[in-house]
Amino acid sequence: xxxxxxxxxxxxxxxxxxxxxxxxxxxxxxxxxxxxxxxxxxxxxxxxxxxxxxxxxxxxxxxxxxxxxxxxxxxxxxxxxxxxxxxxxxxxxxxxxxxxxxxxxxxxxxxxxxxxxxxxxxxxxxxxxxxxxxxxxxxxxxxxxxxxxxxxxxxxxxxxxxxxxxxxxxxxxxxxxxxxxxxxxxxxxxxxxxxxxxxxxxxxxxxxxxxxxxxxxxxxxxxxxxxxxxxxxxxxxxxxxxxxxxxxxxxxxxxxxxxxxxxx
Length: 264
Description:
Layout: E1 9-12, H1 18-29, E2 33-38, H2 41-57, E3 63-67, H3 73-81, E4 88-91, H4 106-134, E5 137-142, H5 155-171, E6 181-188, H6 194-207, H7 211-220, H8 230-240, E7 252-255
Parallel strand pairs: 1-2, 1-4, 2-3, 4-5, 5-6, 6-7
Helix pairs in contact: 1-2, 1-8, 4-5, 6-7
């Protein structure tokens, strides 16, 4: 299927590895020019090199890398300045740490809100009107399956990502919907990423088990009996950015291998 987005420009946040990299790779395969951001310059440049090689195989898509902290005003300015125009915006950031809400003061909450709610809103604010003026725009917010099924120890993430989801629910249905701009959430369950492995390693260390045993038990609890891959996550993201998804907006697409037990 031709997604109809070759030649467009995308800004992909936290794209040096994991799900962000999967999304950037899928877009490059479709001929989309991408600006990728992340804090770690070395990992970002390595990913940029991979994407440029991929781009040469798929229509010559241009790849630009901007190292910096997207949660800061300076980081956002640098990333936006590197993108001639933002037709596609992929908001993504690592989740805040787990813990007991009794231990979180105002500083912890503000940090979580900055990364997982306010930064995406700032980037949407900076780009959405120009998208509407051109008659085409796609915003995909990578959030979490915890939006639908909150996890008790992930209170910071539950709160910040739910705030973003509530805000987007209204914005996506505003006047921009009639001007070719869609905004959707993409909710990952358990994907085989460095973050998942780090979390599993913590559980393994705490319980004295081998990492492989902990991961096997975790994956066995998923109806699909496996973890997701960054590549298949990116493929769904690319479809949400496509011309075929113009009637899909204000929705939250859950990718979790069937782990969520509810009907709605």
